[in-house]
Amino acid sequence: MEFALSETQYMLQESVKGALSRRASLEALRAMTDTGEGRDALEASLKELALSALIPPEEAGGAGLGLLEAALVQQSLGSHAAPFSFAARSVLTPLAVMEAGTQAQKAEWLPKIAEGEMRGALALSEKSGAREDAKITEKNGRLNGRALFVMEAEDATHILTASQDGRLFLAPKNQKTVKIAGLKTIDGTRSFAECLFENAEAEPLSGENARGRSLALILSAARILESADMLGASETLLHMAVDYAKVRKQFGKLIGSFQAVKHLCAEMVAELEPARALLWFAAHDFGENPDAAPLNGCIVKAHMADVARMVSRKATEVHGGMGFAQESGVHFFFKRIGVSIQCLGGPAYLRGEAARMQGWA
Questions:
Q1: Average pLDDT value over all residues in the chain
Q2: Spatial distance between the Cα atoms of 161 and 218, rounded to a whole number of angstroms
Q3: Most exposed among 63, 157, 212, 242, judged by the fewest C-beta atoms under 10 Å?
Q4: Can you tell me the distance from the alpha carbon of 315 to that of 123, in angstroms, rounded to the nearest whole number?
Q5: Is there a contact between 155 and 121 (Cβ–Cβ < 8 Å)?
Q6: Is the predicted pLDDT of residue 210 greater than 60, yes or no?
Q7: Beta partners for 138?
Q8: Which domains does the chain carry?
Q9: Sign, CA torsion 310/315/321/322
Q10: What is the pLDDT of residues 141-182, one digit of tens each?
C-alpha cells in the first residue's frame, strides 16, 4: 500500500500554491493587511480554481472530493498566510448540508455553494468553551444569543451555528435580527466576528439521524483544517529560518554554521514530519471512518498546536539577531499560528475532550 498523495492531490496543491505565489507574496501580504490592496486580485485568482466546488458532489456541480484534499488547500493557504475565506465557506458549510441536511436542502443549497452563490460562516466556537453570555438558543424556529469568534463572516451570506442541544442551523446573514461586529485579533490575515441573534430566522438542518453527531463531525473537520493551516504556516517558518541562517553573518561566520542554530532547525524538521503524517491520516480517515473523526480531530489539533508553537518560537529565535520580526515577515505566521492554537479549543481542552471520549475522565 502506498502512503502518499495521489497525482490528483499533488496537482491540486501545486495549483493553489502557484496562485498564491503570484498573488500572496510577503510584499503583497503586507499591502493586503495594511490597506486591503490586492485582496480582490487574490480572490479572483483563487476563484479560477473553483475551490467552492471542491466538496459538493458531482450531481450538485461540485468535484466531490474529500477532507484530505481540503486540508491540502488549507495547508497551502497557511503556508502563505493568505487572507482568503475557504474553510467555513467551501468545506464546513457543504459538509454540514451533506451530513445533516434534508434531501430538499441538499438539492437547493449544494449547487449554490458550488457556484459560490451561497457562502457560509462558522459560528461554533461556543462548543469548545464559551463565556457565560455567549450561547445560542432556539425556540419556534428562531435563534437568540451571542456567538463569538465567528469565522469568515465578512463576506458570508449565511451563518452556520448550533443550538445548545447540538442541532445545526443555517441563518441568513442579511436580516435585521442578525448583527455582526468585527473582532480584532493578533492575526491580521483572517477575519473573526461577533454575531448577535435577536429572534433571528434560521433553517434547521433536520435530516441527520442522531442529534449532535453532525455537530461533532463538523467540529472535527474544522479542527483538522485549523491543523492544516498551522502545518502550512510552520513549514514556511522553517524555510524562512533556514534561508536566513544561510545569509546572516555573526562574528564573521554564517549563523547556519553554528551548532546551536543547526539544532534549532533540525528540531523543527523532526517535529513537523510526523505531525504531517498525523494530519494526513486524520483528514483521510474522516471519510473512511466517521465514527473516529471526533477523537482524531481533537488529537491532531492538540498535537499540531504544540508543534506549531514550538516551530514559531524556534524560527523566531533563529531570526533573533534581526531585532524586528516585521522586516522578515515572520510575524504574519507567528500570529496566525497563535490564533489557530486557541481557535475551536486549545491543546489542554482538546486532550480533555479526547480523554472523555475514551472514558478516561
A1: 92
A2: 10
A3: 212
A4: 32
A5: no
A6: no
A7: 143
A8: 7-115 (1.10.540.10), 120-204 (2.40.110.10), 213-357 (1.20.140.10)
A9: negative
A10: 899 999 999 999 999 999 999 998 889 999 999 999 999 999
